[in-house]
Amino acid sequence: MDVPPPEQLVRCVEQIDRDRLARTLCELIELPSVNPFGKVPDDEEEGEKQVSAYLRDRLRKLGWTCDVDEYAPGRYNALARLPGTSAGRSLMFAGHMDTVETTGYPQALTGLVRDGKVYGRGACDMKAALACYLEVAEVLAAQSIRLSGDLLIAGVGDEEYRQEGAKALGASGLRADAVIIGEPTELTLCLATKGLAAYELRVEGLATHGSVPQHGSNAILSAARLLGMFDDHQRALDSRRHPLLGPATVNVGVIEGGTKPNIVPSECRIQFSRRLLPGESPAGARAELVASLEPGTWSIGDAWWTVEAYELPAGHWLAETLRVAAQLSHVPDCAPHGFPASSDAAYFGSPVALFGPGSLAQAHSLDEWVSIDDMATATAVYLRTAFLTSG
Q1: What CATH number does domain 195-307 carry, 3.30.450.30, 3.10.450.350, 3.30.70.360, 3.40.50.300?
Q2: Does 3.40.630.10 match the CATH number of domain 7-193+309-390?
């Protein structure tokens, strides 16, 4: 597949407008789309309504068909299509429109361009990729180009929680021959992504006066001893490595317990997550951890939050197509990698690879940014992948 791109594609890549990319991203940042995490959005800052309308209006002006679907109260998907001219393979560029919260982040909803970067909530996770998709549409429209296969852009909701947007799109029966998700992969080709399972560990004790702790059972201290065993469990996980994703991991994120410093606590509650590798299940991961802990007055409930892991089938043409497009775009690292976070990949019902501008190191931070250079490179890769896919 190492063939030089056609003249038409060369002209398209030359048309990529860095200033327009930055402006588009700033406009997207300034449309708040905070994930309400299971609630119905109760103000204009929550949910994907404004971003989905923006995608619809921009793409319709460029000659695409685009529909917005309210798949749950106050939650939206946008799906646009540029019909192909014949029977070439179809390609979908997909990305989530929702962001994490803005609490503690001054000017989170003000897109700011400084020193070759765009700052703001969602800048890299992942409104940058949405801006790149729109730039692809702008370039194709300026050149009056339609590929032989359908080109689709999907903006989905709820990726930051339960992937309900991608699930709804997958359940609709819509399929593309391949999907690229522009998560912040640092411009690396990610052909697998970890899943997630979140659990609650509840430790019971016996309350008594803090001056005579020997007459009670301290739930917090018991929980601390159990958490010490998590290190041994992680070492066991480290010995089983996926070729792209490395080992599964465990993270303790929340601990609550006790009422006052002079009372022996009768209960301690811990929330933790387990990153899943392809082939692992939340039930199996829970059973493995339970077996590694000493018996006691504790319990771990079933996973209350899950995201499936995903791996592109070995030898799929999408991997090579994306690699060639990245190589032609002078991406430094064109080897296959794994994405350590969870994503929507498992729910589209189509073969998926992840490739996008930005880094997880900036995602969810209080100083989120993305490089405009990376956005321009990602746009070039998306354009080349679309041409190569369509044939």
Answers
A1: 3.30.70.360
A2: yes
Cis, peptide link before residue 126, omega less than 30° from 0: yes
Domain ranges (residues) in the chain: 7-193+309-390, 195-307
Q: Which helix (H) or strand (E) covers residue 390, if one does?
A: helix 372-390
192 DSSP β-pair partners: 311, 338
Provide mean pLDDT across the span 148-175. 97
152: left (phi over 0), alpha (psi -120 to 50) or beta: beta
- The helix-helix angle for 128-142 and 372-390 (nearest 10°) equals 60
The residue among 389, 318, 390 whose CA lies nearest residue 86 is 390
* CB crowding 143-152: b at 16 or more within 10 Å, else e: eebbbebbbb
Sign of CA dihedral 34, 36, 40, 43: negative
Query: Which tens digit of pLDDT belongs to each residue from 170-212?
Result: 999 999 999 999 999 999 999 999 999 999 999 999 999 999 9
E runs forming strands in 57-194: 65-72, 75-82, 91-96, 112-114, 117-119, 151-156, 178-181, 189-193
Q: What is the pTM of this model?
A: 0.94
Q: How far is the C-alpha of 201 from the C-alpha of 213, rounded, in Å?
A: 23
Contact 131, 154 (CB under 8 A): no
